[in-house]
Write a structure and sequence with these properties.
Helix content is 23%, strand content 13%. With 590 residues, it is of the alpha+beta class. It has two domains: 59-229 and 325-570, no CATH class; 231-309, no CATH class. Strands 2, 3, 4, 7, 8, 9, 10, 11 and 12 form a nine-stranded antiparallel sheet that branches. A two-stranded antiparallel sheet has the order 1-13. Strands 5-6 form a two-stranded antiparallel ribbon. A hairpin with a 3-residue loop joins strand 9 (388-389) and strand 10. The protein is globular.
Length: 590
């Protein structure tokens, strides 16, 4: 059984190569003879490293050199040897969809981890710091106090970064060279973020189906995600700011990330010079059609000033890929409780940022995945090299730069250190479930049926009443996940979900599943009591300031977690679970 397989879509790769010259122009692809230098692969790797500043190319020393392997990977997959299995692995490790070529579904059945990663260093999961036992009134006052915006409406963290303290100024030049927060978190009725003076910051909030597992409010944090495209995507051809142009470009991106048609207001394609609805002529369009592979000679692409960008450098509408310069902003918040309802609090636990620094074609990404697979076969015990800069962030290896801010012991946001940020690249740097290194935008709510077309912030409308997302086989995604995992989190510790959704024999409660199909909040939101317990537990982590030991809170039963993995050991899971996007094979009867 191979450790790691990489598959390719040769036809689509050829189309992409025809539509955009490879970024580093290495010429026609060729097959090197055995033992010959892998020149194209070396060029890809060199170019990825070049995206980071020079001082970042030296791998930093980490107390946990395998920090990119998340705590969930140490969850027990069997209650007892030979007993029932708990497969939370399939959420991330699954058969991918091109241009993701990391086919890691076998990780569900075989623990192919490097030997240095066998020991579980995420000790906060099974030995957490004691919770901070604040009275309820004080606790709620704390989580309602923003540590991002001050009383005058200024951005507290941005002000601190304007004159960074010596402990933040890694290169001692007196300046912060990484991302400076510029989002006001004041979305209008279309989700566009507005600065205090009413101007657009470029950020736009969107609602999405939260990824299955520890990422639900029921397991610790409320969160949001905003997206921003480069300035050219927000301007018309004359360089004027244009919300109308920006809406169309975001609709094009949504169509090609979610791989569906996206409705738009009636739009004159002749003014934009782009055949949005794919009918072969320029007229009036009411949708952006997802046409893939692209039609030869079709007048289609991003509009406005973005139409003039260099496709080989900045990208073009391609299934599963973002243009260069795309940014995401993701805050994790405490849980507020008001009148018996749980909602997102003002106080942030973390603020996470990522920016796409390099456009990589299907061919580039396939070569990179193949190179990583070969390296894993040759050196199974070699850990992933973390390329990072203390101010600018950590490179994912797939064309993105990630940065993060987290609470200090006093509750103010501070830059994460390299090791704290390295924990993010395990998922964003290459798993089968990712879409161009990301997760949330591919899960955006369908604009045809969602409130405000899915362009809103969770603070404007909560999750109540949102229907459960469906797998391609017609099953509810969350119910299927619960069935595979046998609990409400990867560690089997969420007693509240266990009692609400499972019968004593471990099967799902039909009535609860029926409610879930109509309302995801019935699963994803905790009770007020659990929300307060989660807040107190996380405050214990903040007080300890030992996030390198883990930042996930576990409230409930003792977590089912392994202190040590066995390299190439069997998980007990016999067959990998198929991903939700994959339609079942047709039988002879259909």
């Amino acid at each position: 059984m191979s450790r790691w397989k990489v598959t390719g879509a040769v036809g689509v790769t050829a189309l992409l190569a025809a539509g955009a010259v490879t970024t580093w122009r290495w010429g026609r692809e060729r097959r090197d003879p055995p033992g010959a230098p892998q020149a194209p692969v070396a060029q890809v790797q060199a170019a990825l490293q070049a995206a980071l500043p020079a001082q970042a190319r030296q791998a930093p020393r980490l107390t946990n050199p395998s920090a990119y392997i998340p705590a969930q990977c140490y969850a027990a997959t069997q209650d007892v040897p030979g007993g029932r299995t708990r497969n939370g692995c399939f959420s991330c490790h699954q058969e991918p969809r091109a241009p993701n070529y990391t086919e890691d579904a076998e990780v569900q059945t075989l623990l192919s981890v490097p030997r240095p990663a066998e020991d579980n260093r995420w000790t906060n999961v099974h030995q957490p710091p004691p919770p901070v036992e604040l009275p309820e009134a004080e606790l709620l006052a704390w989580v309602r106090a923003s540590n991002y915006v001050d009383a005058q409406g200024g951005l507290t963290l941005a002000q601190a970064l304007a004159k960074p303290p010596a402990t933040w100024d890694a290169n001692g030049d007196g300046r912060w060279e990484g991302y400076v927060p510029d989002c006001a978190f004041q979305p209008d009725s279309e989700g566009f973020d507005r600065a205090p003076d009413g101007s657009m910051t470029g950020w736009r909030a969107f609602a999405y189906a939260p990824f299955p597992g520890l990422f639900w409010p029921a397991n610790g944090s409320a969160s949001d995600v905003l997206i921003r495209l480069p300035a050219e995507f927000r301007r018309d051809r004359e360089g004027r700011e244009s919300p109308a142009v920006y809406r169309i470009n975001l609709a094009i991106l949504e169509a090609y990330i979610r791989r569906v048609d996206v409705p738009v207001p009636s739009t004159d394609e002749r003014e934009l010079g782009s055949d949005l609805d794919g009918d072969g002529r320029l007229g009036m369009a009411s949708r952006v059609a997802f046409v893939w592979p692209p039609k030869p000679g079709q007048a289609f692409g991003y509009v406005g000033q973005a139409a003039g960008l260099d496709r080989a450098r900045d990208g073009w509408p391609a299934a599963g890929l973002y243009p260069r310069g795309t940014e995401f902003l993701h805050s994790l918040r405490y849980l507020d409780v008001e009148r018996g309802e749980v909602r997102m609090a003002a106080r942030m636990k973390e603020l996470r940022y990522m920016r796409k620094t390099r456009w990589l074609t299907y061919s580039d990404l396939q070569l990179q995945a193949e190179a990583e697979a070969r390296e894993k076969l040759r050196n199974p015990d070699k850990l992933k090299t973390v390329l990072a800069d203390a101010e600018r962030g950590v490179g994912t290896g797939t064309g993105w730069l990630m940065q993060g801010f987290i609470e200090d012991a006093g509750g103010a946001l501070r830059p994460q250190n390299i090791e704290e940020t390295a924990a993010c690249i395990g998922c964003h740097g290459g798993v089968g479930a990712a879409t161009d290194g990301t997760f949330s935008f591919a899960r955006k709510l369908d604009p045809a049926s969602a409130f405000r077309g899915g362009w809103y912030h969770w603070g404007q409308r909560g999750m109540k009443g949102i229907a459960e997302p469906k797998r391609a086989d017609g099953r509810g995604e969350y119910a299927h996940w619960l069935e595979q995992v046998g609990g409400g989190d990867d560690f089997g510790s969420n007693d509240e979900i266990q009692a609400r959704f499972f019968r004593p024999d471990g099967t799902l409660q039909p009535a609860a599943v029926n409610t879930l199909s109509r309302d995801i909040a019935s699963l994803l939101m905790p009770s007020p009591d659990r929300a307060l317990r989660l807040n107190r537990a996380y405050l214990g982590l903040v007080k300890a300031q030992q996030f390198e030991r883990g930042r996930d809170v576990v409230v409930g039963s003792a977590p089912k977690v392994l202190l040590r993995l066995e390299q190439d050991g069997a998980t007990g899971i016999e067959e990998p679970v198929t991903p939700g996007w994959m339609a079942p094979e047709k039988s002879a009867a259909r």
